[in-house]
Amino acid sequence: MKTTSTRRTQTAKQTRSASNASPAPGPADMPRPGGKLGDILGRVSSKNGATADELVDTTGWQKHSVLGALSKLKARGFEIRLDAKANRKAYRLVSTAG
């Protein structure tokens, strides 16, 4: 019987936490980051985007750190993609207006 009461308690807690949960905020709901992440976001949101080397020059970071920062921005909900046009691979922010 102790097992049953534990299951009921866990189910009740799960139900309460699910009802109190709010949807995850998207990029439009969140403020833009400041500092170097904000600089990166500003560069990739330009018309031509920015290559990894350009972002290295902007931030002063090593290339692997810039790529990690892009990954962090993606995890925060910013949609960034890599476009290859005319032998130039540039990261661009996908427009979130809609």
Written description of the protein model:
With 98 residues, this protein is of the alpha+beta class. The protein has a domain at 27-93: Orthogonal Bundle (Arc Repressor Mutant, subunit A), CATH 1.10.10.10. Helix content is 51%, strand content 12%. The chain contains 4 helices and 2 strands, in the order H-H-H-H-E-E. It has helices spanning 2-20, 35-44, 52-59, 63-75, and strands spanning 80-85, 88-93. Strands 1-2 form a two-stranded antiparallel sheet. The chain is globular.
> What does the largest sheet look like?
2 strands, antiparallel
Q: Tell me the Rg in angstroms.
A: 21 Å
Mean pLDDT rating: 79
The third-level CATH topology of the domain at 27-93 is Arc Repressor Mutant, subunit A
Put simply, the count of helices is 4
The CATH H-level superfamily of the domain at 27-93 is Winged helix-like DNA-binding domain superfamily/Winged helix DNA-binding domain
Report the CATH architecture of the domain at 27-93.
Orthogonal Bundle
Shape: globular
Strand content: 5-15%
